[in-house]
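Exercise 7. Predict the joint structure of the components listed below.
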Amino acid sequence: MTLATDLRQADFAAALLDPERPCPANLVAWNGSDPSARFAVYRNNVVFSLIEALADTFPVARRVVGTESFCSMAAAFVRGHPPHSCVLAQYGEAFPDFVADFVTHFAPAGELPYLADLCRIEMARVRAYHAADLDPVAPDAVNAALACGEDIADITLSLHPSLSVVESDYAVASLWAADQTDADADAMSWDRPESALILRDGLDVLVRPVNLGSARFVQAVQQGLSFGSAAAVAAHGRPAFDLSATLTMLVRHSALTAIHPPFREPS
Amino acid sequence: MPDALGAMPVSGLPARVGLGLKPQHFRDVLDACPDIGFFEIHAENYLVDGGPFHHFLGRIRERYPLSVHGVGLSIAAETPPDERHLDRLAALIERYQPAAFSEHLAWSGHGGRFFNDLLPVTYDSPTLDRVCAHIDRIQTRLRRQMLLENPATYVEFSTSTLSEAQFLTETLRRTGCGLLLDVSNVHVSCTNHGRDARAYLDALPLDRAGEIHLAGFAHDADAIGAPLLIDTHGTAIDQAVWELYAYVLARTGPMPTLIERDRDIPPLSALLAEAGRADALLATVAEPPGSRLPRLQGRIS
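Solution:
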C-alpha cells in the first residue's frame, strides 16, 4: 500500500520537472479527454511560479538580458535545481554560479561576463533584506574604543548580519546603480574591477561600491580576525586602503554591532 | 479516533472581510488603517529572521486580527510534516498570536524538493489515514485547531474511491480540524470535473467552516476544448464565484471572508472595493439561530 502510494507521488513529482516524461498513468478526466493536457497545468504552475520567484530576486539581471532570455535561463535552473525549502526567499543561492556557467555557453548572455556577479549582488540584497535585526553600537563607544591607543589592535568587531561583500572583475556595483536610475549601462566602462558592500541600514538595503581594501577588511572581520589583523590583511599590497574611511562608512550605516571586549573608559 | 465534529470552535477571526497582506501595501495599510476585519499572511514569507516583513507585520498586527495561511506543510505528502518547518511555524504563531491557522489539502514537496504548487490528492482510504495522521501531528505541535482548505484541481485519479466532499468530511470528522472553504476553488474544481458546485457544497459539513476564501482565476481549455479554469489569484473575483458565495452565506451565516490576490497586485483601493462587495453580501445574512459557536480561544489544549 505505502509502496504503491510512493510510486504514485514519485511518478507525479518526476514528471513535473521533466517535460520528456509521460504524465502519470493513473490520471483521468471526467469527460474522457487526454489528461496530459490537464497535467500540463501543474507542470506550468511549478516551473512558471519558480521562474517568477527568481525574477523577483533578480530583477536587474532580468532587465539586463531581457525577459525572454532570463526566463529560458531561469527555466533551465528551475528544472535542474528545484528548491529544497518552502521558504522561497532563500531560493536562488545557486543561481549566480549557474549563470556564470550559462553565459559561457549561450548568447546573448555570453556577451555579459558581469552577469553572474550582478546576480550575486541581487541575492545578497534579498539576504540583507530578511537578515536578523541587530542594534548598532553607540557612536560614542566606537570613538572611545578608537581613542584607547595601542590596545585597539586586539579588539574584535561584530558586523551586522545583513552585511556581505561581492568582489568582481567588473564594475558591478556601478552597473547595479545605473539600473536603478535608468542610466545607460551600455555607455558605462564596466570593464574594471569593483567590489560591492551590501547591507541593510534600518529598513533600506544599500549597495555601495568600495575599493578592494575595504572589501577585504570586512571579510576579515567577518572571519573573526582581530581589528589589527583585519586592517593588516586589508592594507597588504594596497597602500591606498583607508581604514578610517572604511570604519566611518560602517558606523554611518549602523553596520558595527559589537566591540569585544566591550571598551570601558579607564577609571 | 473520537468524533470531534462540532466539539470545538471553528475560527477566532471576526465574521468580516479580510485581505491578504502584500508587501507593496505595508505603508498604505499603516497610513490609511482601512476598516477591514483582518489580514492574512502566507506563513512561509515570514519565516525569515528580521527586516521589513517583521517590522511591518508587527505594527499591522497591533491594529488587526491576523490569519496565518501555510502553503508549505505538504499535508498530503507521503512523509510526515517536516518537524523543523513545524517548529518555525510554531515560533511564528507564538510571536504573532493569529486568530486562525490554515493549510491545504494538497502536497507540495517530494524527496526533499519543493514544487511551490498545490498538488492533487488521491481520494482513497490509505491517503485519508495518512492525511488525518499528519493533521493530528500538526494540531498537536501547534497546540491549536487548524483549518483545512478544499483544493483547486485539474486532474482526478482513477484510483480514487471517495468523492472529494466525502474525503474532506471524513478528515474533518476524524481530526476535529475546521474547514477553510475556498469558494473559488469550489467553482474551479467543479467546472474542471463536470460537477455541480451547489451539490458539492451541500455535501460538505458547512457548519465546520471557519473561513472563506474568494479569488480570481484564468480560463483555459482541456484536450477536447472543455473549459479548464486555472486558480491564479491574479484577477478580480468572477460573478459565478460571487453567486456561490451568496449561496454559502445563506447556509452558514456571516463568515470571516478573505479576498485573495497573489499576482498582478492592484492598488490597495482596488482590493478594498472588492472587500466592500463582500461586506455588502455579509450584511445581507443574519446570524442563523443556533449558529452561535463558542468564540474562539483557538487552542486545543
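Discussion. The longest helix of chain B spans residues 125-142.
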